[in-house]
Amino acid sequence: MSGRWWRPRDLACALRIRAQEPAVCVAGATDLMAGGWDPAGSYLDLSALAALAGIRETEAGIEIGALVTCTALGRHAVIRARLPLLAQSAAATGSRAIQNRATLGGNVMNASPAADNPPVLLAYGAQVRLASERGLRSLPYEEFHTGYKTTACAADEIVHSFLVPVPDAGSHQYFRKVGTRRAQAISKVTLALAGQAGREGLCVRIGLASVGPVPVLARTAAAVLRAGRTAACTRERLQEALQADIAPQDDIRSTRLYRDRVAFNLLKEALCGFPTWSDAF
Question: How far is CA 269 from CA 104, 162, 260, 273, in A?
Answer without folding.
Answer: 27, 28, 14, 8
